């Protein structure tokens, strides 16, 4: 289960930090990331920590958003700075986990978890 927090309303140029707390599985064994869904638009991947530990950002958030993982808290974060009105959306965290034994060295085909979403509203 993933539980998100940290959304809210902020003026353009401001910052917010989203948190995603995992229970029932351990973050970091497979890919995890943040998506967002704006009204009328498809859900899009904006930041991901790949299973090899590399990080990828959508171009529109590169340099403004930072994804990070605190393994001791089993929590994924998204630090958002220099927010723009076009960042307004519902933000979701997502994580994959390994397949059950005896294939537990593999991420492909394993369970996939989503948070409930948290609203971020940026006003001008």
Bin the strand percentage. Answer: over 45%
The N- and C-terminal alpha carbons lie at a distance of 34 Å
Overall spatial form: elongated
SSE string, helix = H, strand = E? EEEEEEEEEEE
The averaged pLDDT comes out at 95
Structure description:
- The protein has 124 residues and is mostly beta strands.
- The protein has no helices and 11 strands.
- Strands 2, 4, 5, 6, 9, 10 and 11 form a 7-stranded mixed β-sheet that branches.
- A hairpin with a 5-residue loop joins β5 and β6.
- The mean pLDDT is 95.
Task: Summarize the topology.
Layout: E1 2-5, E2 8-11, E3 16-22, E4 32-37, E5 44-49, E6 55-57, E7 65-70, E8 75-80, E9 89-96, E10 112-114, E11 118-123
Parallel strand pairs: 2-11
Antiparallel strand pairs: 1-3, 3-8, 4-5, 4-9, 5-6, 7-8, 9-10, 9-11
Q: Which features does this protein show?
A:
mainly beta; 124 residues; seven-stranded mixed β-sheet; 48% strand; four-stranded antiparallel β-sheet
Question: What is the gist of this entry?
Answer:
The protein has strands at residues 2-5, 8-11, 16-22, 32-37, 44-49, 55-57, 65-70, 75-80, 89-96, 112-114, 118-123. With 124 residues, the chain is mainly beta.
């Amino acid at each position: 289960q993933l539980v998100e927090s940290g959304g809210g309303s902020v003026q353009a140029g401001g910052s917010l930090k989203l948190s995603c707390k995992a229970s029932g599985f351990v973050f970091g064994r497979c890919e995890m990331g943040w998506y967002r869904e704006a009204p009328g638009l498809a859900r899009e991947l904006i930041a991901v920590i790949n299973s090899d530990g590399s990080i990828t950002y959508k171009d529109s958030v590169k340099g403004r958003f930072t994804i990070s993982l605190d393994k001791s808290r089993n929590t994924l974060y998204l630090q958002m700075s220099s927010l723009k009105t076009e960042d307004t959306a519902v933000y979701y965290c997502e994580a994959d986990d390994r397949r059950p034994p005896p294939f537990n060295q593999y991420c492909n085909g394993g369970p996939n978890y989503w948070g409930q979403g948290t609203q971020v509203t940026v006003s001008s």
